[in-house]
Design goal:
Shape: elongated
Strand content: 25-35%
Number of domains: 2
Helix content: 25-40%
Number of strands: 11
Length: 309
């Protein structure tokens, strides 16, 4: 074995030991064992190498670097292994994935972590980036030129992977659609005019001017409003409170498909406007019951959709 090969082999062994240390012992894993109540196996991917938002870029100190670390930490294996052994990409990535699967399984069974398919994907992406950088960068006998070319290749390939994974993540992540005021939907009587009487009022000295709709008992003691939502995944938002210059008496109840998601009365309410937000899965029927002097306003829904919908 040549001196150069011995050096690369030594670096590979030392780096492998370092990675195994962090996988099994680092980040307080030993202390966490006592808190573990059972094995954890996550077989469905729910995280990708996400593109940062504008807010993330403006506040880099607050960015979540876990995904990036899971990829970057395994890039060296994609460079070091082919430097030691002649191996094609298919064989390399297959053996690497099998190795990571074994490590993840040991992590879960020893309670030193969990089996997480997200880690398997991200670690394998890092190894693939390293292998690609090796193929693009190691082309001459000039060591420094090879190092520079490999480094540049790593950066370029990381950007490509970042973009592709960000696109995949966006394609399979639902986002909130445009705001739809509740009065734009037909209620159980087929009426779309309900809630359209927009009168300003004060709560806790704050002047409230409804922008979309306002609901009350309409001269009764209790009133119920029912809307059909079409069995959709939605995000509900509404404001409520008891106006000033009226008896502080009233209550609100909001139910979806027979399950109550909000119940509040004057006993627990503050003398100021309150907001309620709730995510609904496969919601079909929305029922709102108002009693006394309670008022609701600017009730609306945002449908959760994939961008290609």
């Amino acid at each position: 074995m040549s001196q150069q090969r011995k050096f690369i082999f030594t670096i590979t062994i030392l780096y492998t030991i370092l990675i195994l240390y962090f996988i099994f012992l680092g980040f307080g894993r030993i202390d966490a064992v006592a808190r573990m109540t059972g094995y954890t196996f996550i077989f469905l991917p729910d995280s990708f190498f996400k593109l940062p938002s504008i807010s993330d870029l403006l506040h880099p100190a607050l960015m979540d670097f876990v995904d990036f670390g899971n990829i970057a930490a395994f890039i060296p294996f994609g460079i070091l292994i082919p430097l030691l052994y002649r191996i094609n990409f298919i064989r390399f990535i297959t053996l690497f994935i099998l190795s990571i699967l074994v490590i993840e399984t040991i992590q879960a069974l020893t309670l030193l972590g969990s089996f997480d398919v997200n880690d398997v994907i991200q670690n394998s992406l890092g190894a693939a980036v390293g292998f690609g950088a090796y193929k693009l960068g190691i082309r001459t006998k000039n060591v420094w030129r090879n190092i520079a070319a490999t480094g540049i290749s790593v950066i370029v390939l990381l950007i490509v992977v970042w973009g592709v994974c960000g696109g995949i993540d966006k394609a399979f992540t639902k986002e909130e659609g445009p705001f739809v005021a509740l009065n734009e939907l037909k209620d159980s009587t087929g009426n779309t005019a309900t809630g359209t009487k927009l009168h300003s009022f004060k709560i806790g000295g704050q002047n409230i001017v409804p922008q979309f709709n306002a609901y009350s008992v309409e001269g009764k003691n209790i009133e119920t409003y029912t809307y059909m939502l079409g069995n959709k995944e939605l995000h509900l938002s509404l404001y409520y409170g008891i106006p000033d210059q009226s008896e502080f008496y009233g209550s609100i109840s909001v139910s979806v498909d027979g399950h109550e998601i909000l119940s509040n009365s004057e006993k627990y309410q503050r003398r100021k406007p309150d907001i309620f937000e709730f995510s609904l899965e496969q919601a079909n029927e929305l029922t709102i019951t108002i009693e006394g002097n309670e008022k609701l306003w600017d009730i609306g829904l945002r449908e959760m959709k994939y961008f290609w919908n």
